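Hi support team,

I submitted a single chain yesterday and got back a structure, but I'm not sure I'm reading the token output correctly. Could someone confirm the output below corresponds to the sequence I sent? I've pasted both exactly as they appear in my results page.

Thanks,
R.
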Amino acid sequence: MNRITGLVAEFRASVRDLSPAYFAMVMATGILSIGASMLGVHAVGIGLLYLNIGAYVVLAILFALRIAWFAPNVFNDMIDHRRAPGFFTVVAATCILGNQFLLIVNSLTAAIISWGIALLLWIGLTYTVFVALTVKQQKPTLDEGITGAWLLAIVATQSVALL
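Hi R., thanks for writing in. Yes, this is the structure output for that exact sequence:
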């Protein structure tokens, strides 16, 4: 029983420390999938689509658990200048998955559902993250607080517009 308790504690710790930017894996896999499909390697494109669906579902479950178990940690990440931009990967990943549905398996319904989810996430994250960081009392200096990761907010916006 101690081994199971230890594994559960280790799993919970992993969920607690989950980076908001892990959906970048879905972004990258989706881009490769679409590229392979457009180059005529449809089997690879479809295989990566199914892999991407699995990765997205697993990450969504892990993030839901993180919110349920460690909401204060999630909130702290959303007001952290270094970790907050990572949340925008979920928007871009959702849109890229929607593009996979549309371009690879011609599912307009799945693409529209993905776009709706992504739009809601984009609105929620844009206003939550930017407002929280704007009104935050103590802010880091520009060289400590602004990184290339902030371009993810632009990528997320473009992905919503593209899908």
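A quick pointer for reading it: The first helix runs from residue 2 to 16. Let us know if anything else looks off.

Best,
Support desk
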